[in-house]
Amino acid sequence: MAETTKMAIEDINAAGGLLGREVELTMYDAQSTIQFYTQYATQAAAGDKAHTVHAGITSASREAIRPTLARFKTLYFYNTQYEGGVCDYNNFCTGSTPAQTVAKVVPYAMNKWGKKVYIVAADYNYGQITAQWMQKFVAENGGETLDVEFFPLDVTNFGPTINKIQTAKPDMVISALVGGAHVSFYRQYAAAGMLKEIPIASTTFGVGNEQKLISAEEGNGIIASYGYFEGADNPVNTAFLERLTAKLGADRPVMNELAIRSYEGAMLWAEAVKAAGTADRDPVIEALRSGLTYNGPSGPVTIDAQTNHCSMNVYIGELQDQTWNIVESFENQPPADTQLVCDLVANPNQSTFLFENGLAAAGIE
Asked: Under a CB-based contact definition with an 8 Å cutoff, are residues 255 and 249 in contact?
């Protein structure tokens, strides 16, 4: 995410900058510490007088940054695939939401493997809310959720759960596990011979390039859905990957949605500045909300004025030999989950995270 943000600023400046000036990029490393996220957001807004801040990866980091930047009236981009629910005039969420990805991968996997589902997820905001979305789409597609289990981010022993899955005999497992410790699940699952018996779909596997941390045999056949895979077949993506390889070398990281959306988020902001003729917040927000589209490596990305989220292409990928192969594509998918409860056109003063007071308010129970 850091490298592609840098690349976006380099590309903007190589094309002449914005409004006759070069864009200056300042980066802070919050070290996954919430206190630092708040500290650096304050520094960026009050000290650096930044025109925009692009930051955060977990929902907790976003919720530390978002109210801070809203207070300072500093435009904020959250360029991460997440559980949905942010409704904030000052905050643009460019990552995919469950209605764009979970809604696609669940019926695809159920049609491929069967109707009985076992869910495993990380025990924090993202995993808990995404598991609710999974259950919703399983039920809507005529399936049955046999069980749901949540795991703290530091858990590495999944033996008891694998035994439960063996006993439950689902047609598939759907995973929203997160982070380095949870990679152990996939290794232990394959070692128990389970991957060949009960396949896995995921809403998270691959956004940290986990497919490179496990062997081909431990990952072959896993299915996931995101707003981008490297195999996206368009000229912009081909040219982007060629430039990235020239910049970072042949051993560069595999690009995923988080990295690409970081690039596209910066480019969306730049296009809005050009359209507004100023970098001031309010005219830039107005330009973004005018239906602004940027044609990036993932395809066309368009800001939806009702939610400040993006309509985008969505892809389903199947893992084979540590490489994602796109097996199905969906063009211009709206961020419909937030549209259930967010209308910034009617009420631009909203500044909330709509799931913090219960999921029923979001219409998914």
From this structure: no
| Of 351 and 151, more confident | 151
Q: Do residues 130 and 83 lie in contact, with contact meaning Cβ atoms separated by under 8 Å?
A: yes
Exposed/middle/buried for 65, CB within 10 Å: 0-12, 13-18, 19+? Answer: buried
CA end-to-end span of the chain, whole Å? Answer: 34
> Exposed (0-12), middle (13-18) or buried (19+): which is 347, by Cβ within 10 Å?
exposed
Contact yes or no for 82/114 (Cβ under 8 A): no
Q: Quick one: tokens of 12?
A: 């903007």
Q: Which of 79, 82, 4 is nearest to 303 (CA)?
A: 79
Residue in the structure block whose two tokens are 């002449």? 16
Q: How confident is the model at residue 361 (pLDDT cuts 50, 70, 90)?
A: very low
Given a cut of 90, whether residue 98 has pLDDT beyond it is yes
Pairing of strands 91-93, 86-88: unpaired
d(CA 294, CA 313): 12
pLDDT band at 340 (very low <50, low <70, confident <90, very high): low
The SS3 assignment for 146 reads: strand
Provide the H-helix boundaries in the chain: 2-14, 34-42, 59-72, 102-113, 125-140, 159-168, 183-191, 216-219, 235-248, 257-276, 281-288, 336-339
Q: Compute CA distances 84 → 20, 88, 190, whole Å.
A: 36, 12, 31
- Quickly list H helices, 206-353: 216-219, 235-248, 257-276, 281-288, 336-339
pLDDT digits (tens, 9 = 90+) for 269-310: 999 999 999 999 999 999 999 999 999 999 999 999 999 999
The helix/strand/coil state of 53 is strand
Smallest CA-to-CA distance from 257 within 81, 82, 101 is with 81
Q: What is the mean pLDDT of the chain?
A: 93
Give the total residue count for the chain: 365
At residue 360, does pLDDT exceed 50?
Answer: no
**Residues 35, 47: Cα–Cα separation, whole Å:** 17
Confidence at residue 364, expressed as pLDDT on a 0 to 100 scale: 38
CA distance 173 to 169: 10
